[in-house]
Automatic annotation (TrEMBL):
It comes from Jejuia pallidilutea. Residues 143-208 form the HTH luxR-type domain. One of its GO terms (biological process) is regulation of DNA-templated transcription. It comes from the Bacteria. Residues 5-122 form the Response regulatory domain. This is DNA-binding response regulator. The modification 4-aspartylphosphate is found at D57. InterPro entries: CheY-like_superfamily (IPR011006), NreC/VraR/RcsB-like_REC (IPR058245), Sig_transdc_resp-reg_C-effctor (IPR016032), Sig_transdc_resp-reg_receiver (IPR001789), Tscrpt_reg_LuxR_C (IPR000792), WalR-like (IPR039420). Keywords: DNA-binding, Phosphoprotein, Transcription, Transcription regulation. GO terms for molecular function: DNA binding. Pfam families: GerE, Response_reg.
């Protein structure tokens, strides 16, 4: 069985060291290095491309996991990125999958699941557990539905609200009455099932409507 050569990219030293020790239990896995951020990882693989898999955190200083996913496709396309993160939100999972992640694990994943994913990915296949896949599908379904139910005018008003314009200013910009804008705002809030403008902006960002 071919050895899976791994690099761990995570800014939490205790987690990286613990993961490295855990993987020593498997004869077909070798952790060749640990790095603390995305930039350090990208610098490392400039002269060390003999890596099969990178276990990649999302939230890191200097360069986060999202940026690494974008760059690794051109820099070292043979290295298979597997996300290992504390974030279980559907938008994080979908964004990583879209940008080329071969798998997505949560940091509380048990070691059997971890080694299973590594071995599957080593074969050039992608693997997302049923739970992770469900979260991603739910997010994508919600996003598509929300985009479909907003009219073009409501989308335009939403964009201006997100930029901090007042109702009066938006009305002036769109050459309509303030009452019309208030109606649009009310309809958007109802459709996105939020209670106020702050929640509206947060939901719109999550669904990539703005």
């Amino acid at each position: 069985m071919k050895t899976i050569r791994i690099i761990i990219a995570d800014d939490h030293e205790l987690f990286s060291n613990g993961l490295r020790e855990l993987l020593k239990n498997y004869e077909d896995v070798e952790v060749v290095a640990t790095v603390s951020d995305g930039k350090e990882f990208m610098d490392y693989i400039k002269s060390n491309k003999n890596i099969d898999v990178v276990l990649l955190d999302i939230t890191m200083p200097n360069m986060d996991g999202f940026e690494v996913l974008k760059r690794i496709k051109d820099t070292a396309p043979l290295i298979k990125p597997v996300i290992i993160s504390m974030h279980d939100e559907g938008n994080y999972i979908a964004k990583c999958a879209k940008n080329g992640a071969y798998g997505y694990l949560l940091k509380n994943t048990d070691q059997e699941e971890l080694i299973k994913v590594l071995r599957i990915v080593m074969q050039g296949k992608k693997y997302f557990s049923p739970t992770i896949s469900e979260k991603m599908i739910d997010y994508m379904s919600e996003s598509t539905t929300s985009e479909a139910i907003l009219s073009s005018k409501e989308s335009e008003v939403l964009e201006l609200i997100s930029k901090g314009y007042t109702t009066k200013k938006i009305a002036q910009m769109l050459f309509v009455s303030t009452r019309t804008i208030e109606t649009h705002r009310s309809n958007i809030i109802k459709k996105l099932k939020v209670k106020n403008t702050a929640e509206l902006i947060k939901k719109a960002v999550k669904l990539k409507l703005i």
